[in-house]
Amino acid sequence: MTINMFQFHSKLNCRLIDHLFNRLAMMYGKKWLDMFMTEESINGWKNVWAEMINTRGLTLEMIKRGLNNCIDMYDWPPTLPQFVKACETLSRDETVTPNEPKLSLPVNRAAMPKELKDLKNVLMENLSVH
């Protein structure tokens, strides 16, 4: 019996990953969609990206930042390492003076259940609007 790794991710993550896939498709159009010739390749992408988002503790705000940073950083769709970098890099709108050191964002794993619940609520609101 083959177990799809995506089955281990919650429905919340499925919706988040679907939304992320669609956003990247809207941003990069044919460049993005040409990378996925089969449903299997799409599901493989979703599995790997969902796993890395969970592993790295990326929050909804970090993912939004990553999408915004991709516009400034990449003419072509980002690879997974590029997207993680875009999520973890301060955006041009986040003020950092030249004398201030760049700080990496701490991941508060204790707060993650609340953040996931908040994310679920936001996603459910967005889904009910459409």
Automatic annotation (TrEMBL):
It comes from Pelistega indica. This is Uncharacterized protein.
